[in-house]
Write a structure and sequence with these properties.
- By secondary structure, the protein is of the alpha/beta class.
- The protein has one domain: Rossmann fold (3-Layer(aba) Sandwich).
- It contains eight helices and eleven strands.
- The protein has helices at 13-26, 74-78, 81-91, 103-109, 155-168, 170-179, 198-212, 218-238; strands at 2-6, 30-35, 39-42, 49-52, 54-55, 64-67, 96-100, 117-118, 134-135, 141-144, 147-150.
- α1 (13-26) runs parallel beside α5 (155-168), α1 (13-26) packs across α6 (170-179) and α5 (155-168) runs antiparallel to α6.
- The longest helix has 21 residues, at 218-238.
- The radius of gyration is 17 Å and the shape is globular.
Length: 239
């Protein structure tokens, strides 16, 4: 079974690597990391580097497609027509098309979430509506047909365990969970906006806004994205 994980400059590492470790623990999947060209891809920390094993042109189909999010570059991908076109084509071949964190917005920009319930990171949850999706802020994982979206960052591990269960059965999923010893016992109960204290939520919002502003490409990406959305709205109005 072939799994393709999209990489791109500025992605959040755990969005991709969390699910990868689940899949890889069983050694029963063919896992590919895809970007426009084979080679190193710098994550949103600017320090950690992952590697694309295949170019987008080399991949025409897969069983599971996973799109990670980014703290800085989600908008850049949402405005990248080459990537969006590739996602649309690959989606037609998949058994499951999935996202982690703000990767849901990239699926939305590709037109894959229209009229579907979906979740994403709390910081961008409201933006799902712009793509016709139905936000599910209380849900960590949302499955609708073959599209599955996961909430922020660490939810990618839960997503991968679900995918293993869906494709290989619950026993293999439990085995994968034990192999990576995924037994969360956090020191604090602040992992969701509904649980975090007000002052913690305020600081988290300020921090994520600052991080998102670090990407200079957004100066170009935002107008491109707005123009694309305007064009779609115009076409709809003419029908």
């Amino acid at each position: 079974m072939k799994i393709t994980i999209l990489l791109y400059p500025g992605l959040t590492a755990l969005d991709a690597i969390g699910p990868y470790e689940v899949f890889n623990s069983l050694r029963e999947f063919e896992i590919q990391f895809a970007w426009k060209e084979v080679g190193p891809v710098v994550t949103d920390s600017g320090v950690l580097v992952l590697g694309a094993t295949h170019s987008l042109d080399e991949i025409s189909d897969c069983d599971i497609l996973l799109v990670p999010g980014s703290g800085t570059d989600t908008l850049t991908l949402m405005a990248d027509q080459e990537v969006l076109g590739w996602l649309q084509r690959i989606h037609c071949t998949t058994r499951y098309t999935t996202s982690v964190c703000s990767g849901a917005l990239i699926l939305g920009a590709a037109g894959l979430l229209k009229d579907l319930p979906a979740t994403t990171h709390w910081a961008v949850m409201s933006l799902l509506k712009q793509f016709g999706a139905i936000p599910q802020p209380q849900s960590r994982i949302v499955k609708n047909g073959k599209i599955i979206t996961a909430a922020g960052v660490s939810a990618g591990i839960d997503l991968a365990l679900l995918l293993v269960s869906e494709t290989l059965g619950a026993e293999r999923a439990k085995t994968a969970q034990l192999l990576i010893e995924y037994d969360p016992q956090p020191q604090f109960n602040a992992g969701h906006m509904s649980k975090a204290e007000v002052f913690v939520a305020k600081k988290a919002k300020a921090k994520i806004t600052k991080i998102a502003a670090m990407n200079p490409h957004n100066v170009v990406s935002i107008p491109k994205l707005l123009l694309s959305q305007w064009g779609k709205s115009l076409k709809k109005a003419r029908r």
